[in-house]
Amino acid sequence: MTAIAQTITLPRAVPCTLAVGAFLKNTICVTTGSQAHVSLVHGDLGTPEAVAAFEQSVEALLAQLGVTPTRVAHDLHPDFHCTRFARSLDIPAVPVQHHHAHGAAIAAEHGHDGPVLALALDGFGLGPGNQAWGGELLYCHGAHYQRLGHLAPLPQPGGDVAAREPWRMAAAALHRLGRGAEIARRWPAYPAAARLATILDKGLNSPETSSAGRLFDAACGLLNIHPVAQFEGQAPMALEALVRHPVGLADGWRLENGVLDFTALLAHLADHPDAEAGADLFHGSLIAAMADWAEAAAETSACRTIALGGGCFFNKVLKSGLVAQLSRRNLVVLTADTVSPGDPGLSLGQAWVAALTEV
Asked: CA separation (Å) from 78 to 40, 87, 88, 97, 102?
């Protein structure tokens, strides 16, 4: 049975490259000439079954194509199995930042060989200084990228557990607004709420994140939409399903020095917890603000091609709204049409970046 799920024609021929993908929803990619071959999804590399499928897929795909890679691309995170696997191989290893890879995947899918402004929105990707990135505006050109901006960081109380408990991100938003005293009485059903204001005051186990996924969670928690979710993404999906007519909140955001801050929007949602109205305001504000953000970066960078990548672009309201807004501003918009915008498409972007890197 073939190990290849899809084949993408690249902008040009490149050295044979193996890319080992992301931790979540892992795929691998191998380039041959001007083609990139992406595997089936192996799953999250936290289970023995997914790890076995990943390693078997590497062997099967290389054998099927009859090639020996000249380099291997991997994520910056040192603890991922795929990273350790890549570094164990006897070929040059090329680290590729997660959101750079998201932007590069969109560019590669469209055969675009020039620079792009990558609006990369997802749950988590490690930044070069071990930061928790996830709401990024990057200038990407081949093997290189520059961070032009990001979402205003929020603390993530409890670390990874906040991705499954949106009320925690809502609590972080209240704390950022100077309203930490409201946390315990707003979520009395959760014992941790009684301690969270103190934890946030002291900065204990509350790493800051620029994640768009966690911004969605904060909105969901404030609107009481799945304050504790059964799986990551459940609450934002439910929020999207409530949208009827997206409309931006006047003065709901601030853009300063490349940092896009939605504190005012979160304050409004905290005081007006109507879920349907909040869903419309949240989506409408994100669309309008991010269109402004990208347009400003296009003016300063002289790059007018915008690549929309990352798992948040599974959200059809956000994606269609942004495409429409950016197109009205005479910007060229590239989206994931055949490759996943999320982590299953990451290996394609890793492969394209590493193939263009001198080793």
From this structure: 24, 10, 12, 12, 19
Report pLDDT digits (tens) over 163-216: 999 999 999 999 999 999 999 999 999 999 999 999 999 999 999 999 999 999
Residue 150 CA to residue 120 CA, distance in Å, equals: 9
Neighbours of 196 (CB within 10 A): 24
- Which tens digit of pLDDT belongs to each residue from 124-176? 999 999 999 999 999 999 999 999 999 999 999 999 999 999 999 999 999 99
pTM over 0.70: yes
Beta partners for residue 306, in sequence order: 117, 333
Residue labelled with tokens 């071990």: 130
Backbone angles phi, psi at 4, to 5 degrees: -95, 125
Taking CA atoms, 122 is separated from 3, 74, 134, 152, 348, in Å, by 27, 18, 5, 14, 17
> Looking at the chain, how many residues does it have?
359
If DSSP codes are grouped into helix, strand and coil, which group holds residue 300? helix
- The stretches of 89-210 forming alpha helices (DSSP H) are 98-109, 166-176, 183-186, 193-202
